[in-house]
Amino acid sequence: MITKQEYLSRLANLQRKASENDLEAFLVSSEESIYYLTGVPYRPLERPFFIVVWAASPATLLVPALEKAHLQAAPNVGQVQTYWDYPSPAGQGWAEGLLKILGGISQLGIEPSLPQEASRHLTGFHPRALPLIEELRLIKSPDEVKKVRQAARYADLGVQKTIEASYYGVSELELFAQGRGVQVQIMKDTDYDVLTTSVLVGAWPAPLSAQPHGVPTIADRLKEGPHIALSLLRVNGYAAECERTYFLAPPVPEVQKAFAAMQEARRRAFALVRPGVGCAEVDAAANEFLRKEGYGDYLLHRTAMASAWEIMRGRG
After folding, report:
1. Residue 305 predicted with pLDDT over 70
2. Which helix (H) or strand (E) holds 129?
3. 234 and 283 in a common domain
């Protein structure tokens, strides 16, 4: 559980960063950043939500009137101001409310993800897009590490269920259905938050396993491999992913060779992983080995995600 003190520390750290960048205020608007700073789950949809983080005073929230009671639960903000939904009375929409809150300042920081719809109202404040919250999120607290590990356990469970439910000719419908069991287990074990929890469990059949950003249909069936079991979860705000390449029929020699190369590349990557080692170094160790083995033309992305089918792709 993330404590109230940690949320207070997060906001204080953001205030410090704003001051170091000579900002009078920093405007927070993304759903993920709002959750990170306050712990309050909120889905903005067509109703934007802003936190104005002042360099030296309590933050101000600007929220739709509909959500005021819910968002007052934030543990580390000062004043909560509201606006009327569209079509709002003259002068009472979110844009007017935001300009009023920011009135008088000239050095404003904004998130790089701020929508153009909002940023076009802020030109008079000389906004600077800075990834201040992204920088803070790079370092996880002990409680955050626990939550990531918890998500990872459920990701492992999703892959386990997928592989156990697999047989030659199994339909994607049966495998995607395994996600329901994982979701129910999360509900039983944790303080389940429907807005910050999502579950995707299933398998990508060959040859689609070479294109993991493709999407299988529920009618697809798994036969000759290699296939990818995938479990992509967000559990109460923190995410983890687990993938495994597996077979439901004996692989042909060429696929066995590619699979062995993939495993050796993985071993070389993991042998380098330790504090202080750059991601580029790990990436080079794996992918340079695969290129030397003759698979360079079949690498679609950075390290350790290349399946046996990917590096066989295009070889007939």
Report:
1. no
2. strand 128-129
3. no
* Total domains, the chain: 3
The b/e string for 281-316 (b: 16+ C-beta within 10 A; e otherwise) is ebbebbbebbeebebeebbeeebbebbbbbbbbeee
Please give the residue range of the domain that contains residue 297: 251-316
Q: What is the pTM of this model?
A: 0.84
Q: What is the CA radius of gyration of the chain?
A: 24
Closest listed residue to residue 102, CA positions, set 77, 81, 132, 72: 81
* 270's tokens: 């993991």
> Which residues are registered as beta bridge partners of 234?
198, 239
Q: Are residues 157 and 220 in the same domain?
A: yes
pLDDT digits (tens, 9 = 90+) for 61-74: 998 887 777 777 77
Using one digit for the tens of pLDDT, what is the confidence trace for 42-88?
777 778 889 999 988 889 999 888 777 777 777 777 788 888 877 77
- Please answer whether residues 181 and 199 qualify as being in contact, where contact means their C-beta atoms are separated by less than 8 angstroms: no
